[in-house]
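Structure representation.

___
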Amino acid sequence: MSDARGPVAAHIRLASVPLFASLNESQLRTLAFRAEERSYRDGDTIIAQGDDGNALFVILSGQARVSRSKRPVTVLGPGQYFGEMALLDSQPRTADVTAEGPVSCLVLTAWGFWSAADHEVLRAMFKEVTRRLRASPTAFSE
């Protein structure tokens, strides 16, 4: 991780994210060691719809606007995340995410995730992805 606060601070941040909340200290530290902090300026594209997906982003500070096919979907803030599906399937991104003001994110690549994933990490990931799918009003419509 490039931030001076290092993996110790990152594992504490990951523990507050629903995706990783059920993991133990050791699992969180292992994931945090593989993550890095990245900063974005106002208007920067963090991810672009259609690009290859290969990382999960956890917002540490600031806000990011999510849009799909140029239509606004939501605004995310600290503790929220996006890109979790990319860790599972490496498919193209389904939305644009743009910084609204300065944004800092903890970024975990698919390689970092899979090199650290044990069955408990995978179970936590699948449970949270399933929860988000069930909560989505359009997840199962055509």
About this structure: The CA atoms of residues 70 and 96 lie 8 Å apart. The chain has a mean pLDDT of 84. The chain has one domain: 6-135.
